[in-house]
Design brief:
This protein has helices spanning 3-25, 40-60, 68-81, 93-106, 108-113, 130-139, 151-160, 164-199, 205-214, 229-250, 272-276, 280-283, 290-295, 301-308, 310-323, 337-356, 358-369, 386-409, 413-437, 448-456, 458-461, 463-476, 484-497, 502-531, 544-562, 566-570, 574-579, 585-607, 616-620, 624-684, and strands spanning 261-263, 285-287, 330-331, 335-336. By secondary structure, the protein is mainly α. A two-stranded antiparallel ribbon has the order 1-2. Strands 3-4 form a two-stranded antiparallel sheet.
C-alpha cells in the first residue's frame, strides 16, 4: 500500500465514521451506506476519479497517476468501512444496550416481572442516574450554547457530558466480541477465497464491474470501457431518466416523471387466495431497475432466471400452504415460517459448499491443524495458500474465543456453539450469494437465536439463554447486508485481479476496520448524548431491536412459570438441555422444505442438462431485496437470452458495455442527489427533497 493510498483510506474512513454517522442518523440525509455491497459513495467517487481526476494527473505526469492496484486497495478497504456506521454496527448498537431501560419503564408488565434481571452484567449500560444516562440518551443534552465558546472547548464539553463510567462495562463487554466476529469473518473470507475463485470459478459480478472501471490498456489515460460508444449510450440514457425523475421531486409543476414501476395488485381483488399469500404484492409489482438488469449480463442464465423467479415460486408454494391453514407469518428478528425455510436452505447450502470443496478444505485442515506439508505439483503450484492456512488457524481460535465469551455471559455450551456457528454460517452464505449472483443487497431474514430457540424449545433453552442469545445476535448479526465479509469477499477478488497480496490486504483492512469501529462508537455515543438518539426508524432500531430479546423471552418465561418449570429450566446443564430438546413441528417442516429444495435443486442442476433453477432461489425468496429486484433480474435475463438467441455470444459481448453504462448511471444518479441534498441542507438548513431508488 502506497503512502497516498493509506492517507486517502484513513481520511475517508475517519470522515465516514464521524460525519457520515451524523449525516445518516442526525441530519437524516441520503445514507452513506446506500448501495450496500456496491456502495454509492465509494464506487461513484471511483467512477468520477478515473474519468476526470486521474487523467488530469496523467496529463501533468504519468508518475502522478494512480495505478489500478492503488485504486483497488482504496476501493476494497473503503467499501468495507461503509457498513460501520450503518447496519454492521452503529445503526443499532448504542440503542440496543441503552434503550431496554427506557422501554421497561413504558411497560408495567415488564417492569413488574423484572425482565432486565435476565440480562448479564455488562451487556446493558448502568442506568443510574436515570436522567443522566437514559433520558439524556433519548432526548439529548439540555446544555445551552455558550457565546464565544471555541470549537475545541465545545467539543470537550460535549465529550464530558457523556456518562462514560456507566458505559465502561458495556464497551469492555461488547468491543472484544465485535472485534472477534470481524476477525473471524476476515479469516473465513481468506479460507474460502481460493476454492470459490480458482476452483469453482465464481463470477464475482461486483468485483468484475469495478475492475472494468480500473482496466487501462496501452498506457492509456482512460479506462478501456470509456472508449466504447455502447457504454455511453447506456450511461446517458439511464442518467437522463434518473436526473429527470430526481428533478421532478424538486419541480413537480415543471417536469413529467418517467414511470419506473407499476402495480397490478388491484387484480388480486378477483383472486382471494392470491391476496392471502404473503409477498404476492411483490409478484404483481413490475419495476425497472437498470442496475439489477445490467448485473444480469455478468451472470449465467440460470442464476439471473432463478433470482427473477423467486417471488413466483414463493407465491405458488404459499398459496398451496395457505389452503391447508399453515401459519406463514414471520418476524424478521424472532422468526416464523418464511425465515425458517431460508434457515433450512442456508444449512443445506453450507453443507453443499463444504462438500464441493472437501479436498481443498481437508488439505487446509491438515496443514493448519496438524502441520502437514503442502503438496506441490509439477508447475510448482501449492495445493493451498500460506495465507489461507494461517487464516484457518485464526478462524478456529476466534470461533473458540467467541464461544468462550458467550459461555462467560451465561450461555450453556451447546447453545453457545450453535449460536456462534449459525452466525458464521449466515456471514459465509451472504458472502457466497454476493460473489455468485452480484446481489448488492442481501438479507437472510432469520436470526441464529430464533432458530436455536425453536430447535431446542422453550424449556430446554430457558428465558435467560434466550435473552443472552437474542442480544448477542442483535449486536453482532442483526443485518448481514452490510457485514464485513461480503464486502471483503469482493475486495479479495479485486485484489487478486490486480496481483495484490491477499493476506496483506485482509490484515490492513482489519486494522482500518477496527480503527473505524473505535472512532464511530466513540463519536456515536457523544452525538447521541448531545442531540438525542435517532428515532428515524421507530419500529426498528428505536423499539424492535432494543426489546427483541425481551419480547422473545417473556412469553416463554410466563409459560414456564405457569407450568411450574421455570426454575428447573434455568438449572439445566448443557447435556440436560440436549436431552430435553423439543423442536417445534412447524419449524421442522419449514426448515425441511428449504433444506430439501436446495438439495434437490443442486442435484438436478449437476446431473441433468435441462434443469435451469439455481439453489440461490431458495436462499433469497420472500426477502426485502428480491421484492425490489426480482423483476429487473428477470428482465435482464430475458434481454440477454434474446441477444444469445438472435446474435449469439458475439452480440452479448457488444451489448454488455451498454449494461455496464446503465449500472454506472444508476450509481452516479444516486451520488448526484446525495451530494445535492447535503449541499441544500447545509445552505438552507431545511431537509431536502428525497429521491431514492436503491432498495434499503
Amino acid at each position: 500500500m502506497t503512502k497516498r493510498a493509506f492517507l486517502i483510506i484513513i481520511v475517508f474512513v475517519s470522515l465516514l465514521t464521524t460525519f457520515g454517522f451524523v449525516n445518516d442518523h442526525v441530519l437524516r440525509l441520503e445514507s452513506t451506506s446506500n448501495g450496500h455491497q456496491l456502495p454509492i459513495i465509494v464506487v461513484g467517487s471511483l467512477f468520477l476519479f478515473v474519468l476526470i481526476l486521474n487523467p488530469l494527473l496523467g496529463m501533468l505526469s504519468r508518475r502522478r497517476m494512480f495505478m489500478s492496484s492503488e485504486l483497488a486497495v482504496i476501493v476494497a478497504i473503503c467499501s468495507c468501512a461503509c457498513g460501520i456506521g450503518g447496519r454492521a454496527l452503529m445503526e443499532q448498537f448504542t440503542q440496543i444496550v441503552a434503550l431496554p431501560h427506557y422501554w421497561v419503564t413504558q411497560n408495567p408488565g415488564w417492569s413488574r416481572r423484572h425482565v432486565l434481571d435476565m440480562f448479564p452484567k455488562g451487556t446493558l449500560v448502568d442506568p443510574e442516574p436515570f436522567d443522566e444516562v437514559v433520558s439524556r440518551f433519548v432526548i439529548g443534552s439540555d446544555q445551552v450554547t455558550i457565546p464565544g465558546e471555541g470549537r475545541l472547548a465545545r467539543f470537550k464539553r460535549k465529550v464530558e457530558q457523556v456518562p462514560w463510567r456507566q458505559w465502561r462495562g458495556v464497551l469492555l463487554t461488547w468491543m472484544p466480541l465485535v472485534a472477534l466476529v470481524n476477525l473471524a469473518m476476515t479469516a473465513l473470507a481468506l479460507v474460502v477465497h481460493r476454492q470459490w475463485s480458482r476452483h469453482e470459478h465464481l463470477q464475482y459480478p461486483i468485483a468484475e464491474f469495478i475492475e472494468t472501471l480500473l482496466d487501462r490498456r496501452d498506457d492509456s489515460l482512460l479506462a478501456t470501457i470509456f472508449r466504447n460508444k455502447m457504454f455511453w449510450i447506456g450511461f446517458l440514457f439511464v442518467l437522463f431518466i434518473r436526473l429527470n425523475n430526481g428533478l421532478y421531486q424538486w419541480f413537480p409543476n415543471v417536469l413529467i416523471p418517467i414511470k419506473m414501476e407499476h402495480s397490478f395488485w388491484p387484480f388480486a381483488n378477483k383472486y382471494t387466495l392470491l391476496r392471502r399469500a404473503p409477498g404476492a404484492w411483490a409478484l404483481l409489482r413490475l419495476n425497472f431497475f437498470p442496475l439489477a438488469s445490467g448485473i444480469a449480463f455478468f451472470l449465467s442464465a440460470e442464476i439471473s432466471l432463478s433470482l427473477g423467479l423467486t417471488q413466483l415460486f414463493w407465491v405458488v408454494l404459499s398459496m398451496f400452504l395457505v389452503t391447508y391453514g399453515v401459519n406463514l407469518s414471520n418476524d424478521y428478528d424472532i422468526g416464523g415460517f418464511q425465515g425458517w425455510t431460508r434457515a433450512g436452505a442456508y444449512v443445506a447450502y453450507g453443507i453443499l459448499l463444504a462438500y464441493s470443496g472437501r479436498y481443498y478444505y481437508w488439505n487446509l485442515c491438515r496443514q493448519a491443524l496438524f502441520f502437514a506439508k503442502s503438496k506441490v505439483d509439477e508447475s510448482g503450484n501449492s495445493d493451498t495458500d500460506p495465507g489461507a492456512v494461517n487464516a484457518l488457524r485464526v478462524l478456529v481460535l476466534s470461533t473458540i474465543a467467541l464461544c468462550w465469551l458467550s459461555i462467560r455471559l451465561g450461555l450453556s455450551w451447546p447453545i453457545a456453539i450453535c449460536n456462534t456457528l449459525l452466525m458464521l454460517l449466515t456471514y459465509m452464505i451472504v458472502a457466497r450469494i454476493s460473489a455468485e449472483t452480484g446481489l448488492l443487497f442481501i438479507q437472510p431474514g432469520w436470526q441464529p437465536f430464533g432458530i436455536v430457540m425453536v430447535l431446542f424449545g422453550g424449556y430446554a433453552m430457558g428465558p435467560t439463554a434466550i435473552v443472552i442469545s437474542g442480544i448477542l445476535c442483535a449486536v453482532l448479526c442483526i443485518d448481514q447486508s452490510q457485514a464485513l465479509m461480503p464486502y471483503l469477499t469482493n475486495g479479495l477478488k479485486l485484489a487478486e485481479r490486480n496481483k495484490i497480496s491477499l493476506p496483506k490486504l485482509a490484515r490492513s483492512n482489519l486494522y482500518v476496520y477496527l480503527f473505524g469501529i473505535a472512532l464511530c462508537v466513540f463519536w456515536g455515543i457523544v452525538v447521541s448524548y448531545d442531540v438525542g438518539t435517532t428515532t428515524y426508524y421507530p419500529e426498528w432500531s428505536f423499539y424492535r431491536l432494543p426489546t427483541m430479546a425481551i419480547r422473545a423471552a417473556d412469553p416463554v418465561s410466563l409459560k414456564l412459570q405457569a407450568t411450574g418449570t421455570l426454575e428447573a429450566s434455568e438449572a439445566l446443564t448443557g447435556i440436560e438441555r440436549i436431552i430435553n430438546i423439543r423442536p417445534e413441528p412447524l419449524f421442522l417442516w419449514a426448515a425441511g422444505i428449504g433444506f430439501v429444495c436446495v438439495m434437490v435443486t443442486n442435484f438436478l442442476r449437476l446431473r441433468t442438462t435441462w434443469w435451469v433453477i439455481h439453489p440461490c432461489l431458495f436462499l433469497t425468496w420472500i426477502t426485502a431485496p428480491l421484492n425490489s429486484m426480482a423483476c429487473p433480474f428477470l428482465l435482464g435475463w430475458f434481454i440477454k437470452k434474446m441477444c444469445l438467441r438472435f446474435g449469439g455470444n458475439q452480440l452479448v459481448q457488444k451489448v454488455r458495455p451498454l449494461a455496464i453504462g446503465a449500472i454506472a448511471a444508476d450509481i452516479i444518479g444516486a451520488l448526484i442527489f446525495m451530494v445535492v441534498g447535503a449541499v441544500y441542507y447545509f445552505v438552507t438548513g431545511e431537509p431536502p427533497k428525497t429521491y431514492r431508488f436503491f432498495p434499503r
